[in-house]
């Protein structure tokens, strides 16, 4: 059973930066395309960014140019560098597989990001 553990969230000011980390464990198979997702209060979960195992990335329009997704395949980790944070980035952030490629595994607890105006 694949498990994900997210970390690195916190409180930031508008214009600030945070780096989120995702550790994957529990599977003997390597994981393919991964994504970061977020869910703001009262809103549905949305896709933020994806990255293939080979490093090809894609971003939601709302974060393009501000966020950078990366991965370390040897460590089974995925990262999200968030720059120029905005209050609308406030959400719980989760990592999981890219659902366009693979079915979701169980969701982790996520990590909270709060951006003050």
Which structural class do the helices and strands define?
A: mainly beta
Give the total of beta strands: 10
Taking all residues together, what is the mean pLDDT?
Answer: 95
Total of DSSP H or I helical runs spanning 4+ residues = 0
Indicate the overall shape.
globular
**What is the first-to-last residue Cα distance?**
40 Å
Note the beta-strand portion: over 45%
How many strands, what sense, and barrel or not for the largest sheet?
Answer: 6 strands, mixed
Radius of gyration: 13 Å
Helicity, as a percent range = under 10%
SSE string: EEEEEEEEEE
Stretches with pLDDT under 50, minimum 5 residues:
none
Question: In which order are the strands of the major sheet placed?
Answer: 2-10-9-4-5-6
Write up what this structure looks like.
With 117 residues, this protein is mainly beta. 0% of the residues lie in helices and 49% in strands. The chain is built from no helices and 10 strands. The protein has strands at residues 3-7, 10-13, 18-25, 34-39, 46-51, 57-59, 67-72, 77-82, 91-97, 111-116. The strands form 2 sheets. The protein has a 6-stranded mixed β-sheet, with no helix packed on it. The chain is globular and about 40 Å long. The model has no long low-confidence stretch (mean pLDDT 95).
């Amino acid at each position: 059973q694949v498990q994900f553990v997210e970390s690195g969230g916190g409180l930031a000011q508008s214009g600030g930066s945070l780096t989120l980390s995702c550790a994957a464990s529990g599977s003997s198979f390597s994981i393919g395309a991964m994504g970061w997702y977020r869910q703001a209060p009262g809103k549905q979960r949305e896709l933020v960014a994806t990255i293939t195992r080979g490093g090809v990335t894609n971003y939601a329009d709302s974060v393009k140019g501000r966020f950078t997704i990366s991965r370390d395949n040897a460590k089974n980790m995925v990262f999200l560098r968030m720059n120029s944070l905005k209050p609308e980035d406030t959400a719980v952030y989760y990592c999981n597989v890219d659902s366009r490629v693979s079915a979701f595994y169980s969701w982790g607890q996520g990590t909270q990001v709060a951006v003050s105006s």
